[in-house]
Q: What sequence folds into this?
């Protein structure tokens, strides 16, 4: 079951990041990384072709209130996003009476390989379990996305199943699904 999400006024911090709700002033930073070939495809969407496309999606992020902006502390540039998405399918009957969300994320290609995404994911996991009292979180990646696989493994998720899925850009890919139980709630 999907947990309720409203990230209004939520601000989380790590050593290098401010994890916060999106703002209209983030448009240039968002478009800068979303237009780069290879970034969106890792998350199942095509590179943005115009700043207007990024603006439309940014407005959706602001309205829906379930996607964080990842802002660097040292220069206040937004370099990625991390969403608490609706769960894409039921894991199994065991989870039907529990609440959770599916984590999805993307990071500017300029910042890959620096450990920023595991840092962000682990901080959001802590928020979801300690503050929001979620029972579990899910995460998935396409079989070709080894960077996401490493983030998921570093964050303690366990593999659950493989499933065919059609991405936002219309491609059909095999996705690997993982779950992380809230250790204080799931027994």
A:
């Amino acid at each position: 079951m999907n947990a309720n999400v409203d990230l209004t006024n939520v601000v989380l911090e790590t050593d290098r990041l401010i994890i916060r709700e999106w703002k209209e002033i983030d448009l240039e930073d968002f478009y800068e990384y979303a237009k780069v070939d290879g970034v969106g495809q890792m998350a199942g969407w095509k590179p943005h072709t115009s700043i207007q496309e990024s603006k439309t999606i940014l407005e959706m992020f602001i309205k829906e209130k379930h996607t964080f902006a990842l802002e660097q502390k040292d220069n206040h540039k937004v370099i990625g996003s991390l969403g608490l998405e609706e769960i894409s399918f039921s894991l199994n009957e065991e989870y039907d009476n529990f609440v959770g969300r599916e984590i999805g994320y993307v990071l500017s290609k300029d910042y890959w390989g620096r450990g920023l995404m595991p840092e962000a994911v682990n901080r959001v996991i802590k928020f979801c379990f300690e503050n929001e009292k979620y029972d579990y979180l899910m995460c998935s990646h396409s079989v070709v996305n080894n960077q996401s696989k490493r983030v998921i493994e570093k964050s303690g998720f366990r593999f659950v199943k493989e499933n065919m899925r059609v991405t936002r850009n219309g491609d059909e890919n095999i996705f690997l699904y993982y779950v992380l139980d809230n250790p204080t709630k799931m027994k």
Notes: The helical segments are 27-34, 40-43, 51-64, 116-131, 146-154.
